[in-house]
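Team,

Forwarding the record for the chain on the shared tracking sheet. I've put the sequence and predicted structure together so nobody has to dig through attachments.
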Amino acid sequence: MQNYTLSQIAELLGAELHGDGALEISKIATLANARSGHIAFLANKKYRPQLDNTNASAVILSAADAQYYSGNKLIAANPYNSYAQLAQIMDTTPASAAKGIHVSAVVHPEACIANTASIAANAVIEAGATIGENTQIGANCFVGQNASIGDNTKLWSNVSVYHSVEIGCDCLVQANAIIGSDGFGYANDKGQWIKIPQLGSVIIGDKVEIGAGATIDRGAIDDTIIHSNVIIDNQVHIAHNVEIGSGTAIAGCTVIAGSTTIGRNCQIAGLVGINGHIEICDGVILTGMSMVTKAIKEAGVYSSGLPHSSNKEWRRNIAHLRNLPEMKDRLKALETLTKSLNLENE
């Protein structure tokens, strides 16, 4: 791991240095757990009290928070973004494969592998597949016939990329993701399910990140499309013919049913369920555990998941909910009676 002086970090981040520029930094840490030689950051004011007791050698913070810390500090316009930049600089994540093709990999002679690409142990690359420059294919990965993976993309171990799938440049796919599996397409003939072959593919743009265990189904006829600069968390399921606009972020365990279109720069929290054959416009934020059953045509924040409560309160509320039809009838009767009394008094 390479150490950096505080002055080097300030220059790399474009931050304002206050303190000892020659101080060496070996690691990024939280305010609570930082030790000597570590740099921490403050991006949320609720953690401001931790500045008093942190053992960090330096802290990245905003101009507004600088007055609360007297030690070595880097003042940044956006401390969280500066932390993200520094994490990239000091990243210790190893490459998923050595340069070249591992002796145990199975690469079809009709596959096209760039000279600078890496194919790790036990990977399988089928006929017609294309692997771009500096792309890393991890151990036990499968890349199907005529699939295409662009330059500088990285697949961790056990990723499956089905036939004819297209993945762009500078993408990152975490372990055990599956891209291009069959969509859930069946017809029913008098109780017997008839499988509908999924004839489309999956098209993924540039700078897309896909989390561990995520599944993206191929289209039934047209393609499933993930535009550039989309980030998808672990265990997300994206069904056939979904289209996701650029800049959208989707958190863990969200499920998107088939033929739904999601706009640009949306933020979808964890455990959200989105119905099929609907459209969600640009700039929509869905909070955790929301259930979306119809189109959303205006940008904004939408919620439907209920916050937790004590078991006693929850049971009482459910009992009231079950009585809603009776309460509605009683309310209607009262309205009718009130209207009748008002007429008599006129």
